[in-house]
Amino acid sequence: MARHLITSAIPYINGIKHLGNLVGSQLPADLFARYQRGRGHEVLFLCATDEHGTPAELAAAKAGQPVAEYCAEMHDVQAKIAQGFRLSFDHFGRSSSPQNQKLTQHFAGVLADRGLIREVSETQMYSPTDGRYLPDRYIEGTCPNCGFESARGDQCDNCTKQLDPVDLINPHSTISGATDLEMRETKHLYLRQSTMKDELEKWIDTREGWPVLTTSIAKKWLNDGDGLQDRGITRDLDWGVPVKKGDADWPGMEGKVFYVWFDAPIEYIACAQEWVDAGKGDDWSRWWRTDAGAEDVTYTQFMGKDNVPFHTLSFPATILGSGEPWKLVDYIKSFNYLNYEGGQFSTSRGRGVFMDQALEVLPSDYWRWWLLSHAPESSDAEFTWENFQASVNKDLSDVLGNFVSRVTKFCRSKFGEEVPAGGSYGPAEEALIAELTERLTAYQGHMDAIEVRKAAAELRAIWAAGNEYLQSAAPWAAFKEDPDRAAAIVRLSLNLIRLYAVLSAPFIPDTSDVLKEALKLDSLDWPEDLPEALNALAPGATFTVPENLFRKIADEEREDWQARFSGTRG
Ligand SMILES: Nc1ncnc2c1ncn2[C@@H]1O[C@H](COP(=O)(O)OP(=O)(O)OP(=O)(O)O)[C@@H](O)[C@H]1O
Ligand SMILES: [Zn+2]
Description:
Layout: E1 3-8, H1 19-38, E2 42-49, H2 54-63, H3 67-84, E3 91-94, H4 98-113, E4 117-127, E5 132-133, E6 139-142, E7 151-152, E8 169-173, E9 182-191, H5 197-206, H6 212-223, E10 231-232, E11 234-235, E12 244-245, E13 248-249, E14 257-258, H7 260-277, H8 285-288, E15 297-304, H9 308-322, E16 331-335, E17 338-340, E18 343-344, H10 355-361, H11 364-373, E19 381-383, H12 385-415, H13 427-448, H14 452-473, H15 475-481, H16 483-504, H17 509-518, H18 530-533, H19 555-564
Parallel strand pairs: 1-2, 1-15, 2-3, 15-16, 17-19
Antiparallel strand pairs: 4-5, 4-9, 6-7, 6-8, 9-10, 11-14, 12-13, 17-18
GO cellular component, one term: aminoacyl-tRNA synthetase multienzyme complex
Organism: Pseudooceanicola marinus
Binding site for ATP: 347
């Protein structure tokens, strides 16, 4: 049994996530976690809300709430929606947890002791109108790199370049709009990433088979321009992890907090501690400490492309720089972007379909199937309502749903609600079993390699093979001449439904549960031996005909949704 540590990029707290966020991080992570559990491996799947930083402060101010209260409420909202999508986190933590605060301060202290943090006296944008410094998203202006007019103080959303507020052209305060900004002297801490460039590059070169998207972004930040730069890790804000050196005060850093991108990835570790403290596990160190058993853990991270620099460089710099035996990531699965109907999904502009709205429209399996089978892997992808309607109607309703319905109803009408005896598998069945044996190997290969679209295509082909078999074996015709022959066809077909329940579970877990219940199965064991698995349901085993698995999306409905979600969320 292998051990898999799996983390999804932690969703930011300032609102409900859209379908792009979901497919770019949490959903494929859940797919992989469910698959590895299905194969019988031990999995620790962690996610959390990312709660610090300026956008949380801004969102709380807009909601008229204290920021801690706002974050607590939004965490619960996100946790509930995650359940709605059946995201099977072992723990859904919070980056504002005491565990993360302590661990973040610990890392800063160790890095300082090892000479990897320098104190810099620098000038920062100060707004007399607002009476405060303007870090990160408190300031916007024109990107010096690409000319985008709403670049933020920490990163340009258009070209993804990491910025400092002082780099912006024509900057203004996003709180008051004030442009009468002045530069004031303040002291900050910098992580000396530049001194670790060679070590980081060497480490990245040892990582095998990483997606090109992951390594190309990492290499770009390592080598473009003057190479990897030191990174400011503190901010003049109230909301965040107070700057401390371990347990000790940090002279000159009073009233400052760590930058959100310093503490957010550390939450991956703290989240495992929260998992233990919540009584759900009894040892986090065997997942995270290589001196406590984590050496044989395979650690996989999931994220959208804008998160890659922090996971390939900044967080590994924190871990490697500490000199302590923390587990480093083995595989980083990154995604391009999902777009929405000819434009971008946007939380700030409320554009697209958001997770709560999606669940109001259709059950989660419809969304899970479409999103995963169209995951933006090799390039950006686009959600359109036409494509959604077509895929749901074809793959889920016509192929899988129809197969299950035809088989169970035919069996009920001719043999009753139990697996018929009689007849035996012949050449048609042997051919199908041979085809499915190959397809199963391919499916597992794609799942192991986290090739999400290819895995979905293979699963669809496995469903379609059943339909084609049923169509050509035609038990309804055979029944008149040779009821035993019809019995054998139906028996195999019922076993196919059982197979589909197991193999489809990572993609569409609710449907899988419905099938499991209809066939009265105690568990869903992975088909390590396919011929055996297709004989698992023995004659006499009873079942019930499930309700229609998927309903078709009608044109009028699709048009309604298209109109309803064409504007911006209020
Ligand atoms: N359109 C998208 N398609 C795929 N992944 C995305 C998309 N937008 C964001 N992501 C990913 O979603 C995850 C969670 O994102 P996060 O909560 O930080 O929001 P974000 O990146 O600020 O997005 P937005 O600005 O749209 O709110 C991250 O891994 C991010 O890379
Ligand atoms: Zn730019």
